[in-house]
Structures are given as C-alpha cells and as structure tokens.
Amino acid sequence: MSTMTYLQAISSALRDELRADDRVLLMGEDIGVFGGAFKVTDGFVEEFGTDRVMDTPLAEAGIIGTAIGAAVVGMRPVCEMQFADFISCGFDQLVNVAGKMHYRQGLAVPIVVRLPSGGGFSGGPFHSQNPEAWFMHSPGIKVVAPSTASDAKGLLHAAIRDPNPVCYMEHKHLYRRVRGEVPDGVFETPFTARVARAGSDLVVITYGAMVQVALEATEDLDGAAVEVLDLRSLVPLDSDAILDSVTRCSKVVIVDEANSTCAAGAQVAALIAEKGFEDLDGPVVRVSTPDVPIPFSPPLEKAVLPGVDRVKEACRELLAY
Amino acid sequence: MATHMAEPAVPGTAGTTEHLTQEDRVWLLRAMLLMRGLEERAMTLYRQGKVPGSFYDGFGQEAVSAGAAFAMAPEDRLCILHRDLAAHIIRGVTPTRILAQYLGRAAGVTQGRDGNVHFGDRTLGCVGMVSMLPDMMLVATGMAMAFKLRGEKRCAMTWFGDGSTSRGDFHEAMNWAGVQKLPVVFVLENNQYAYSTPLDKQFAVDPVERAAAYGFVGVTVDGNDAEAMFEASREARERAVGGHGPTLIEAVTMRMHGHAAHDDMKYVPKEQVEEWRKRDPIDRQEGRLRSAGVDVEAVRASVAEEIDAATEEALATPMPDPGSVLEGVFCSGEAEPLGDGVARWSGFRS
Amino acid sequence: MSSSRTDTLVDVTMPQMGVSVAEGTIVAWRVEPGDRIAADATICEISTDKIDTEVPAPVSGVVAEILVAVEETVEVGTVLARIATGDLGVPAPPADPDAPAPPADRGAPAPPPGPTNGAPPSGASTGNGHRTASDRRRYSPVVQRIAAEHDIDLSAVEGTGRGGRVRKQDVLAFIESAPEPPMHIESPYRPDPVPAAAAPAPAVAPGGLSRMRRQIGEHMKRSLETAAHCTSWIEVDMSRVEEARIRLGLTALSFVARATIAALREHPALNATLEGEEYTVHQDVNLGIAVSLGGDGLIVPVIQGAHELSVEGIGARVKDLARRARARELSADDVRGGTFTITNPGQYGTIMATPIINQPQVAILDLETVVKRPVVITDADGNDSIAIRSMTILGLSWDHRALDGAMAAQFLATVKRLLEGWTGS
Q1: N or C: which end of chain B has fewer CB within 10 A?
Q2: What is the set of active-site residues of A?
Q3: Is the ipTM of this complex over 0.90?
C-alpha cells in the first residue's frame, strides 16, 4: 500500500501498463514532452520515449480514429482527451467506428479514452462538462468513473486490459484533492458498484466526484443511516447492486454532476421505477445540474453544480417523507 | 466543372506493367467480372425483394478496387469502400458469403448485423467501412502508425470518394499520415459525383494537389484501367514499406449507376454517361487479353458458373436467429487482431 | 404556508353515499365534545336511502362540537361536527427543483377557522376543492407490499412521516409490536416454506422429527383429543367404476370423490365444521385430498367448489394439486377452507384404516385398495350366484359430537349406491 492522490494513481496505472505491455501506447495532445495539461504523464517521455507517449496533432477524431486502427492490428492505445469536452470532436469515431465494430464484424477494439471531466473551478462551458451519458446511450462502449485513488488505478488497469472501447471518466476536481491508500502493483477493479458507506434509511446513488459530496452531505444527518452507493461503472451498470440498495433503504436520492436530462442518474431512476417499485417508500429524488451550459463566473457555477448543501437538503426532505 | 481531372485516359496500352504475368492479368479481369456479375445478381435479387434495405454498386468502377487491392500483400490491411467489391474478392471473401451478406443471411460476413458492402472480413485483414465517410482514412492511418511504431514492413490502404475530401477526417488523416510519414495508401475514388453533387460543388482545387501540402506524393491514375491502378498502387506500397511515407492516388473514374438502386441519376448528362461507357474497365482488360491470345469467353463462362452456384448456395442459407440479436455488442474474450488476407499477385509468391 | 402552531377546525360533513343520495340521518354518535379522535376512527353512524354506514373522522384531533343530533336528517354536505386540530402546519414546498416531490397530501391544508354557529356552509366543507388529508391517504409501494404480505390493515398503522404518512419503518414497527397471528385452523397442515431445489437435509429436531412431522403429529393429536372419533365401514362393488375408470383413464379416487360429493349434497350434515360449540353446515363442498409427500409427511390441498366439477374435472384437479403439493408450489388458498376430506393410501394393498378427522371438519372418508374378490350376487329374480368383482372397503371416521352412527351409515350407503350404479359423471 502507498498513499497517493487520484492523479498519481492514474499516472501509476499508466506507467505500470507501459512497463508491463509493449502494446500499450499513450496518445494525446501535449502529453509527451510537456507531460499533459494536468501533468498526468509528467516524466513519461524520459522513460518510455516519444513513440509510446505520443504527442499527436490537435485532432480528436484523429486521435481516436488512429487509435482504433492501431488497436485492430494489435496495439492497446490509451488516448487522452485534453478535456472531456473535446470528445465531441471525436464522437463519430468513437460511437460509429469503435462502438459498433465488434457487433458488426466481430472485431474487438481495445482502446481507452481518458476524459478529464467535471467542473467546479470556473472552467466555463467548454472545460467543465460531464459527457458520460452520451456514450451510455451508444451501444458498444463501456464507461467507468472512479471516485477514489484506489479505484482510479484499479479501474484504469481493468479498462486497458478490457478488449472493448472504454471511456474512463477522470474527474479533474479529484485529481489533487482526493488522496488515499492504493495497493501496490497492478490490480484490476471490476466494473461493478461499490457501497461507499452502508446504511438502511436512505441511499444516495452516485459516481465520480459526487461520491465525495454525497459522503460529506450525509455524514451526520440527524442520526439517519444513509447508504452511499458509488456506481464506479456506468456501462455496464450494476443493476443488482442498485436494486439491493433500494431494497435495503427504500428511499433513494440520485446525484449527477452532469446536466439532468437523460443523465446517468436518469437511467438509474428508470431502472428503479421498473425493477424496484415494490421497494420504494417515497419518490425517487434526483439532484443534478440543471440543463444549462456550465457558466464561468463562480457564483453562477456554484448555483448550478450539486453541492453538499443541496444533497443534504434533498436527503432531509426524503427522510422526513 | 473541373473537367481537366475528369478527362479519361486514352484507352489502349497505357497502364500495362512488366510486373504482371498473363495469369495476373487474367485474375484482374476475373475479379472485375466477379464484382460486376455479383452486383448484377444482387440487383436482380434486390428487385425480386430478396435483398433488404438499399442497394449500392460500383458498376464501371471495378478497376479501382481490383487494381489497387491486387498490389496488397497478405500482411497489409485494408479499409474497403462500398463500390470496391473486387477488393473483397481479391482478399478471399467467397461469392457465396458476399451474396449471403446482401441477402441479410447468417452466412453473410456480418451475419446480418450490417448490410450490402458494409463489411470487412477481419480474418482476411479487412475492416468494414462505416457510412460516415471517410472515417476509415483515420483507421487506416492508425494501422499504418502501429506498423511504423513496430518497425514492420507493411502498409494500410483505404478507399474513399470525392465527396469525402470535404470532410474534416480527410484533413486529419492526410495531415497525421504526413506528419508521421506513415505507410498508408489513400485511394481517392473520383467518380464525378457524391450522390448528386458534382465535383465543382465539392472542391475548388483538385484534391490530388493537396497531397503536396501535406508533405507527400499525389498521383492521378486512370481509374478505369485495372493495370494502371495496380501499377500506381504497387509503387505506393513500395514507397510505404520503404519508409517514404504515404501516397494519395486519385483514381479518376465514373459512377455509371445511381448512388443507390433508388437513384435515377437524372442529374447526370446523358452524354457524360455515353462517353464513359466507351471506357468500360472490363472491356479494356478483355481487349488486352484477347490480343494476348487469352480465351476471354472461357473466363466469362467460368465466372458466370461460379455466380450461379453461389446464388443457389446463398439462397439456401438461413436468416439469422433473432435470438442472437443481443449478442456480441461487447467482446468478452481476448481481443483478436486482424488476420492476413490472400494475395493474388505473382509478385508475392516469388 | 407557515408552520405556526394554531388550532384549526375541520368540518365533518354528511357524506354522499351514492350519486342519487341527497340526505342522511344520524343514527348514533360515537364521541362527545371534548373527546380525542384519531383520523379514520368512526365518529358517527348514519343511515341513508341506500346504505347504513359509519363516518370516519377526517383528521386527528379533539371533537370541538356536534351540530346534528341523533335521529335528525340533514342534506348531504351538512356539517355534522367539527374537530379541532393543532399543529397542522405543513412546511413550505421546497424551492430546490431537485428536492423530493411533495407528499400526496401536501396540498390539503385544513380550511381556516370559520364561524361555529349559523347555517352550515353549502357544498363540501373543504371549499378549496382539496380533499381532506384522511380520505386521500396513500401508501408507498413498499408499505403496501409489506402490508399485503403481513395482512395488515394500514389504517391501523400510525404514520410518522410528513403529514402523518405511513412510512416503511412505521409498518415494520407495527409488525414488530403486533401479537403472533392465530393459526389458520381450517387446515391442519401448513406447507413448509418452499425449499430451494436440491435442498440440504431437512431441519431435524433434537428428537429426530422434521418440523412438518412434528406439526402433523400435533394436529393429529389435537384432533383425537378434540373429536369423538368413530369409524364405520362399507363394502362397495367397484366393477362399474373400474370399467369407466379404465375408459376415462382416471383413478378410482376421482370416482369416489365424485360420489362422495353427491352424497354430501344429500347428507349435508357431514359437509360441516365444528369449532367449539359452533356447528356449521356448508352449502359448497370444498373437498380436501390428502397428498403424501413421501418421507416429509402429507398435506391436504383443497378442491374449492368441488361440487361443480365432473369426474374428469375432479381427476384433473387432483392431479394438479398433487403435483403442486409435491413441487411445494401450493399457496395458502390451496389448503384453506376444506369442508370434507378424502384420504387414499390404497396403492400399497391395505384394505381398511381408521382415518383421523381433519379438524374442524366432522368426517373423513378413507379409500383403500380395490381388489377382485368372489362375491355373492343376487339377480332381479332373487337367484344367488358367485361372481368375481372389483371390491373395496370405504371407511368413514366421523365425530360423534356432531353426528350419530345412523347418519354416517346413510351417507356411506349413498356413496355405495352411487358407485355401484355408476352411470356417467
């Protein structure tokens, strides 16, 4: 075990994989000599060279499209979008080429796309998004979102070793704020949910940065035993774990940092309505970002992103229901 | 209209190459005859209501895929476009599987998951195209990138149309391949129309001239001459595996049918079609072989027989089982990379 | 709306018991001014053209005044009484768009205090169009499910949620505090919980008996202790039944059951239950059939409404119940409400038994093996001869507390007559 930040855990997984497997190749804008916009690959070029830590042209479709090509001839490319927001430029390659490949012709596309996502630091409308639901809606792409340092490493190892396209949502806000014990060496975290805190009165279902928010908001809620379920994986979605929590707690608050409509949490709510109805003791409550672009100015951004107070309030209301 | 690039090469001996044996030249004819025959048969089945969906063909463009694919080695990798059936035939996909593919049968290459020429046999080193053109330019570029990183003497080839040159992926792939000097061959299939849009609404400068701007070679070839296409592709492959970077081959040809079966092509002047009919790539190859003493009728007869047998076989295969429709969205085992294809050119046998 | 603590008066009005009903009469008041009353508890009894009924209190509180006297007839909607409630304040709806949906009764505040004298207001007392809290009491899916599983009347459960809403924890607490429900005495045997396929060895008591075995033992012992058991036998010629049985592909049990049912219709005194001193004769025949579960014991599923079935119908039902019994798929309804039982252990060659009555029924019929025997036959002219016939001995255990020997004998004779003269269904 060693203590590291979420960002160090990501770097550690990448470094371990580059060392362990010649087929692994990092691709992205400014990831080589500069070490990446967030310094995830800082110092990598010195160890692995510019071929395996590749500074690409500024071309997101190019990064994903060429990664697909490299993958189908035996490489294991790990692509970095400088910001998750820029995946829109590579959307077509990911959704239409990578996502449908195995279903159409049995050809596996083992690529990982790292998506530094999320807001909270005045990144504005183009550096703050949480686009994971776009890919949940498109068959053939797995989507994972770690909330702890340990999961950041374990999920990245598992993603790189998965034979499918995987969107790895890494939350920028967690990079240096979350720190934790991480097992040494290579270990794979399964694409399943994790009970971050067990409880029986109410469950907060969430993922990514909102796990920390949920834990803080419900730490002391008038003595209520609040469970926090960290989804970790959005595709596949761990329906069993979700429904188990619903059975146990009967009251559900779902938190998304993403815009509300058709967000991951909307899918969770639909699942509960369909499969968990008999266990509900109140309305399924959602806390999420309203359907507006993420504004730049701090008071505006704070007004839209779900925070501890909003989660706390929602839980209180539902507990009293 | 940019007529200077649409002007067909003069029919005759142009494009013949000392790298082709007589057997090779018959194979080129055979591939083109199979392509035309299979597409005509599929069109008949389409009109009989047996082929679902839309139907696209490459009538008149057979030389582009036949000549280019003929120059590819087993270890090379291909991303083939929908008017390039001859490339699949050369790589080793059987006529029965091709017809089963059109028919949406379980025996088709995609087992009914995708239609018409949207396929690629992964065991033969081919990646099936998607409808967003030219997405596969980037995939081919990525394959070439892997070859270069691993120091392998292989190349990737991809086909795309004149309309594709307007999209960003064309630029991203051309630029990327140029920057990294990758072993990739881009075949720009200039068939005069993107659906109904003529060239002068697509670009202001002949795209072959853009190659220089990206730092590599661009050549214009008579796309209705299979041997000329072979020769340009053979040279491009040598350039690629020799470490001299990509090549853009502009194959000038003509789409002799509508964009798809439902398109009456009323936007194409009749004279233009008549002019191009005289330059039919199969007629040209047959002329060459006849003067070399080959019994062309025998080749035709054997191809026709093969297509009849394949039709019977394909029609006897079952439709896919709806119970399997949810399977295979994800790969659950090991990711297997593409396999090697078949190489027909005698040059690979020496 | 503020949450200040102010008493509010809620009207109790003459309800509309049917679209055509215009007025009602007070039959009795269950409360007096000053009494505390819980929401949904009966406040008074009324009589209308269509129905006599009870009026439940719309809210919990203290009866402030009674405005209509007993025997008085008033129009629908007339205020009958007023209940004072305190602390009915409901918090303001949350401003947060993501906060929980308001509880169903949030929009039903009590009306403001009005004059307590003068003419009653016309129309509904809750003039704002909202129904009162009590008559739109709704329960969440989990609360309804738990209530259904435990057979709980939710109106008896006190709610601690918003606006008195019954929450999951409330219904769980209610179950926790409720006394053990009484055993269903209609059926002596209760199925064990359905075991998983290939269940491990059955739970064995210290003495070596399974739980089911012990239960059967208890019920048997209780029956012997309760009833005054007597057993009567009758010999029956089953030849005609045998012929029909083979033709229809049924077992003798179906025919005996059919004849028994017909005999019970003729002798309803045996289609009865005796509980303590309460002897009840039943119109319908709900026929219990004892089904062996092998080493595990036996169970008595009930063919409800058996009198409506043909012999084939009975055969099909017996088969189905036996299969489900052995697959442990019987529901509680399948073993409830029997009025008479037949037991049939005849397949092993035994010819007589003294069955124990299935409490609280008053008789049980035992069918053993059908065997070929030489019997003396007397023809229409009175000539005797010896013939080979398929014979069986039916045994009837009956409760001497409810019946006498003659009744039992007459019943058996009827069964015999029906079986020997079997003509059809």
Answers
A1: C
A2: 127
A3: yes
